[in-house]
From TrEMBL:
Domain Nudix hydrolase: 141-267
Pfam families in UniProt: NUDIX, Zn_ribbon_NUD
Keywords: Hydrolase, Magnesium, Metal-binding, NAD
Name of the protein: NAD(+) diphosphatase
Cofactor: Mg(2+)
Gene name linked to the record: nudC
Alphabetized PANTHER family for the sequence: NAD(P)H PYROPHOSPHATASE NUDT13, MITOCHONDRIAL, NUCLEOSIDE DIPHOSPHATE-LINKED MOIETY X MOTIF 13
Record EC number: 3.6.1.22
Annotated CDD domains: NUDIX_NADH_pyrophosphatase_Nudt13 (cd03429)
Molecular function per GO: hydrolase activity
InterPro entries: NudC-like_C, NUDIX_hydrolase-like_dom_sf, NUDIX_hydrolase_CS, NUDIX_hydrolase_dom, Znr_NADH_PPase
Enzyme category, top tier: hydrolase
């Protein structure tokens, strides 16, 4: 989660004198010092004008600034890391701020012209939005909700793999919420589409923003209600029930899938529902 003292905002073109936390990106990769700390403002100024540059919140007295350069030549003292690889490098609160910065940078670049009439947009007063001066359309940052479901049948868990997973890796089932669909309806639909399994007894677990590019993952436990495993063609390469002592390769700890599956394993081992 964000640090407790963080307040989100969106303010374009901060004054050059703004002091604070620098979340700077080289394309989609976060720029860090080699010890994993955030770079200082003076070091980043040497990279020249950024393509995107705004404040995205305050942490106490400090502003949190997002900037993005396209393919910058970084000095030796800096590195650029994919945000997934930063999870164990940054403190957790900082990782979630970096996730917000990355998501808003993508939105800022994609909303510079009005999607309704094509006119260049400006910043809307008083809210994090772009405003079209010609037609009045407001463009808010988009968030795409997605669900994840770990299905349990007695002391076994339903895990599946899609063709793009690393070799040997299985995970919980997941998919995007369709327009006009409820989260609960999406859980039932995705699990049935991907595996032919019916579920019941949905139980909320946790959520995690996933800024690749703009998802919000909502994770649930559920129980088996019926059906035989029938993997969805083209989407699911394999799916099976796994006992907790005979598990396949699992997702990396950066993902909420890892936390959800760990929780499911622990519950089975402790005899909890
Ligand atoms: Zn417009």
């Amino acid at each position: 989660m964000w640090p407790e003292n963080f307040i989100p905002l969106f303010q374009a073109t901060p004054a050059a004198s703004v002091a604070g936390h620098e979340f700077a990106f080289a394309d989609d990769a976060l720029i860090l010092n080699h010890d994993g700390s955030l770079p200082d403002t003076a070091t980043l100024e040497a990279l020249g004008p950024a393509r995107a540059d705004f404040l995205f919140g305050r942490a106490g007295e400090s502003g949190c600034r997002a900037r993005r350069w396209d393919a910058p030549a970084l000095p030796e003292k800096l590195q650029a890391l994919n945000l997934r690889a930063c999870h164990g490098v940054l403190q957790e609160g900082q990782w979630f701020l970096a996730a917000r910065a990355k998501q808003l940078l993508g939105w800022d670049l994609a909303s510079r012209h009005c999607g309704a009439c094509g006119t260049p947009t400006g910043t809307a007063p008083g809210e994090p939005a772009k405003l079209c001066p010609a037609c009045g359309h407001r463009h808010y940052p988009q968030i795409a909700p997605a669900v994840m479901c770990l299905v349990r049948r007695g002391d076994r868990l339903l895990l599946a793999r899609s063709p793009h997973f690393a070799p040997g890796m299985f995970s919980a089932l997941a998919g995007f919420v369709e327009a006009g669909e409820s989260v609960e309806g999406c859980l039932h639909r995705e699990v049935f589409e991907e595996t032919g399994i019916r579920i019941t007894n949905l139980r909320w677990f946790a959520s995690q923003p996933w800024p690749f590019p703009q998802s919000l993952m909502l994770a649930f436990h559920a129980d088996y209600a019926g059906g035989h495993i029938t993997p969805q063609a083209d989407e699911i390469e394999a799916a099976d029930w796994f006992g907790v002592d005979a598990l396949p390769g699992l997702p990396s700890p950066v993902s909420i899938a890892s936390r959800l599956i760990s929780d499911g394993i622990e519950r089975i081992r402790k005899g909890l529902p």
